[in-house]
Amino acid sequence: MARVVRFHEFGGPEVLRIENVDLPALGRGEIRLRVKALGLNRAETLLRMGRYIETPLLPSGLGLEAAGFVETVGEGVDDFAPGDIVSVIPPVSMVRWPAYGEVATFPARLLVKHPPSLGWVEAAALWMQYLTAYGALIDIAGLHKNDFVVITAASSSVGLAAIQIANMVGATPIAVTRTSSKARALLDHGAGYVIASQEENLERRLEEITQTKGVRVVLDAVGGHIFEPLTAAMCEGGILIEYGGLSNEPTPFPLFNVLSKRLTLRGYLVHEVINDQDRLDTAKSFILAGLASGGLQPVIARTFAFDDIIEAHHFLQSNQQFGKIVVTL
């Protein structure tokens, strides 16, 4: 048996329970991981509330990211052995392969022998943020030197990863955050410019920054009314990639801006990279090279003990964090 986090009803952080459960038998191509750290993601709050892209049968586990060492290897696994230190690329289904537990099971193809220079906390904070940002900015948008890229929800782990990736390729990252309280920290972490969307005119500031040349790439996690000023400040042929939906407001379709500038509005899930082995291998090479060079460095907002998982989820929902929240075991 092992201690895992499960929920028996949908709701707030208080529905999470740490329970002792029997370990399932390993399937072909799977490994059992002794978990040392967990990376928290907003998707886990959505699953817990019954608002995620998959609906679990209750009781359900949850969690997408982990780091630890291989405990048991299933049939057909040749690339890993007990004792290997690994981190986990998020599986497509956290219901099928939940990460929150002392022990967790994952497909072997989603394990990465992470660089020895990384501790458990950093290793658990890698793949969701960097794969999400890489897939949008490099794989889809082809971000390159001298591009302007707008990054909303910039103080999130994905936002900070996008800033780092933009700097790696020589683009100029423009961080958008709600208030100026995190502006200094964003500049210190590589943002070329910061716009506080609740305190400044977003469209006017983007025009000033780009000197009316316009923004070619937008990575947005918010939606809502922000679509109008964002698309108004984009250049002809620009692309807006939507990967979130944090706003509770309706998202208008900016018809005039899209038509007049021939814009592309693109919905995006990191699953499309994870499910394509060639694209995933290319992304892994880029990210591991960035870690080795120091261009990519996970930003850790705060760590919590496993027994404090409810408190960790409260903090996750508070929007106070700057970077990644990690739970240690």
Automatic annotation (TrEMBL):
Transmembrane segments: none annotated. Keywords: NADP, Oxidoreductase. This is NADPH:quinone reductase-like Zn-dependent oxidoreductase. CDD domains: MDR2. SUPFAM superfamilies: GroES-like, NAD(P)-binding Rossmann-fold domains. Pfam families: ADH_N, ADH_zinc_N. InterPro entries: ADH-like_C, ADH-like_N, ER, GroES-like_sf, NAD(P)-bd_dom_sf. Residues 11-327 form the Enoyl reductase (ER) domain. It comes from Phyllobacterium ifriqiyense.
